[in-house]
Amino acid sequence: MTLTGSGSAYDPPADATARRAGAPGPARTRVHGPERRLDRRVALVTGASSGIGAATARRFAMDGWQLLLSGRDRYRLERTATGTSAVVLPADLAAPDGPRLLARSALHTTGRVDVLVAGAGIRWTGPFAAMPHTDIDRVLTLDLNATLHLVREVLPTMIAAGRGRVVLLGAVAGAGQEAVHSAAKAGLAAFAGALREELRGTGVGVTYVVPGPVDTESRTHRSGLLTPGHVAATIFDAVRRHRDEAHLAPPPEGRARALKPGLYRRLRDRRG
User: Fold this and answer.
1) pTM value?
2) Where is there biased composition of kind Low complexity (predicted)?
């Protein structure tokens, strides 16, 4: 049984002096690279410390976007921001006021957010019957509740501007040993569809991206897994094309793992 950051997302602080989850404060900003220009489009990316979030940030930076990067680990955020004009906004979205404080810092820094890529999340792997109640709450808080609260904080400025896009990251439903994570992502899927309908005519769109199994633990592509770069390219393309949904088909082995996890495990065990 493991409880880990998804790599897209929610990374534990690098040192023991990090702020307690229940006592957040306004994020301190730090600008990297060239001087930021507020006439550029602005993307706020959560979970930008590593994995999908970091890859997505770099892809938007390649197209000249002004980046606001958020996560818990300032050191990792600064590595993501290297060579760009990104502004680092460390935040703990699990804290009760975390989403509001992050949104306030972001809007104070650039005055607007054109695209929110909500990539923060955590996953717990193991039998549901053995899952501690506290971890059920943690996964639901980070994978679902915190995202909804952050969207709620950023959305009014998008509606007032008559433009913007919210990007939500989903997951293949029914992944074995990840029942609560799957439930949270199913909640995000329902939220994305309902919010999209509600926002029609406002100029604000909602994109729901569903990647197959992603290798967020290494820099090399492992058999059956997508790379964070593949997901980042899909996210960027979906934003550029104003797409409502984007589904990444995994390689054959990963497709079997995602759609038929029980069968995949039996075949894997048979092969040894």
Assistant:
1) 0.79
2) 11-28
